[in-house]
Fold:
Amino acid sequence: MALLHIAEPGLCADPHQHRLAVGIDLGTTNSLVATVRSGSAAVLEDESGCALLPSVVRYLQDGIPEVGLEAQLRQTDDPHNTIASVKRFMGRGLKDVPGASATPYRFVDAPGMVRIETHAGVKSPVEVSAEILKVLRSRAEASLGGELTGAVITVPAYFDDAQRQATKDAARLAGLNVLRLLNEPTAAAIAYGLDTASQGTFCIYDLGGGTFDISILRLRQGIFEVVATNGDSALGGDDFDECIYRWIVEQGGVAEASVTDSRLLLSLARKAKETLTGHDEARIRATLASGVELDLSLSAETFFALTAGLIAKTLGPTRKALRDAGLGMDDIDGVVLVGGSTRMRHVRAAVADFFKREPLTNLDPDKVVALGAAMQANLLVGNHKTDDWLLLDVIPLSLGLETMGGLVEKVVPRNATLPVARAQEFTTFKDGQTAISIHVVQGERELVGDCRSLARFELRGIPPMVAGAARIRVAFQVDADGLLSVSAHEQTSGVQTAIEVKPSYGLSDDEIARMLQDSFTHAKNDMDARNLREQRVDGLRLLEATQAALDEDGLRLLSDTERIAIGRAMDTLHVLLNGQDHVAIKRAADSLNRATAQFAARRMDASIQRALTGRRLDAIEV
Amino acid sequence: MAITLSERAANRVQKFLDQRGKGVGLRLGVRTSGCSGMAYTLEFVDETLPDDIAFVSYGVTVLIDPKSLTFLEGTELDFVREGLNEGFKFNNPNVKNSCGCGESFNV
Structure:
């Protein structure tokens, strides 16, 4: 018996036509999946009632990888094969990953995106993320009782093209149809129903396990627009744990902590942090490997003092985002807290103090992004009637081109709203230059070397002109998912070329190889079929022509032996025409041609003779 | 005979109505479609219709049009959990047979 849900008036789906859609928060530390059932968004739990899936994947020597809590628990025993925080590596090369050397992983520097060597082979971050998504997908399908129509997956607002594409690829690999990528702050705003207001400017303060993001959204006539983003990719709840850990080491006089000790103390530090969310004091008791007993008491006051610097570090980017948006504190109509770390009382207090208003906190800060994504997914598959709900996001980093001297010319500026199309004219550098190489980069720096290279392509066939005469219009177009296509068009000659920026990183290597292989195989088949058809047509034409010639002149111009030889060649060709071997047909046709060469020559002579007989030389037109 | 909600179903419906923030009740109905002839519909109600027949179960108003009522007379709507899946289930005494998944039926 299928279980039913309550639909909006008039929107009841036909039987077996339910469009199941989920929102997925693919987080650095934890991931969640949520859906809208009977009009309410809810996070889906696993069999044991857990909503959060730790974003940890452990590869075993054989068999399917472990994902989630069980992988997280084995992280310390099996550090090389247990991959955590893989989101940091998405779409990143080894040199782009800050602190890569501090992780236990065995990195393989592949072109474009870093890979990690595990028991089960070399894995790309896309594959690791796909394992997490697969678990969420099967959880959702078990909970919803059917196959998913699609999913909305959230990404940080600052994710660049390569990172967004990597996220999409991971979803595809996990068998999910991505309805849309949604910026995390936008999802949070949706979850709080901020879209129901007529207008307003909202600030989303997202302090997660290892990242801090601040985003400013503007709502106008029911339309969301991300007007500015900023953040710190290396600041989060883990740093607060670290602070407490250092305090324990100092207070407890721990001279030299073994690996086991520091792991134990770090987990105690985390527990203390969580305790202090609701209590004024946390006891920390531990027995170290050396036998030393620790028994400390951390007061909330001390904790707040220890970590005040970390909170101050979040306010810098916040000010910067406000400045980018050209807004003052008074322009902000609401502040939303996202991320588990915003449960800490002093974080809330600091935010309230900074904005001079109480932040919105009534939704679970861990779940709010997934809930918003679920609502967006529900809308996109058509289970909700509102049609005036459009989301506009911004370009997180400027997009531009390399110009002479390795300089960057920005075409689409940072914080431009999506979708966007911008064009700019460029010209040739040298006299007679017939091609131009277009190098698309992303970033804010002035030198190409400091920006991220997204793609290169060439515009060829420019007619030779003096330097500076060509007018090459380069257009950038970014779609609603934040994916880029670039086209170049030389205006005087009309030559043009375009590229869709699919950042060239790993995973697709195999796919590209396979697709190429496919196209090779097919190309051969297609070519064979084409050859066969061509040879048949030619062969038939030859047979008909020969037959016509024989009928006309065969008896007059050929000896019996010659006629028999031609007849035999015709028979051979005739038989082969019904076969599949275009090479044999060609050979038979050639031999028929050879057999009739003499005949053709004689016919030519005869016809010339006929044409010339009895005519005066000056009457012949040449 | 009447249409009833189980207590569990009524609580759920009330909760969903509260979260939705508007709506006067729940509409049950049948329509012709699906692999076995008829299918259930389950919707929130923002406006009652003149022909609607209303039942109240555990404080929740259930509306149904007269035509559907002939096929649903005596039905109890329950809310059940099956593994990770949960949702509403029609216990309809009029059903002669239903399709494999129970989403459509005939009487």
Remarks:
- The radius of gyration of chain B is 14 Å.
- The first strand of chain B starts at residue 4 and ends at 5.
